[in-house]
Fold this sequence. Notes:
Blueprint lengths: L1 H22 L1 H20 L4 H29 L4 H10 L3 H25 L1
Amino acid sequence: MVTAYALVFGGFLLLGGRLADLFGRRRIFMAGVGFFALASLAGGFAQDPTMLVVFRALQGLGGALLAPSALSLVLTIFQEGPERNRAWTVEYGGRWWWRGWIAAGRRADAVCGLALDILH
């Protein structure tokens, strides 16, 4: 599943940047977020492993659309200096921020898994 995401993400990253240049950063960013969200929702309802791999690949496509747009939006919205540095820290820095998301994901996984075990 990780490989499907990574291959499609890496393969379409340049296309995402080019589409952002042609059609607008914000428009492609929002399309990528929407596409990623829909692929995530569909992956949640996958009935077999093949469907799950396909939806993970579609998530990679959504990520490839939104990643270059997000980078260029940060560069164009925030002026150079402390303001942009703060934006970069929020977007890509902050190891503690990422650790928090990982811990929250693990907790949610445990709670959802327990709920599914009880309901099933």
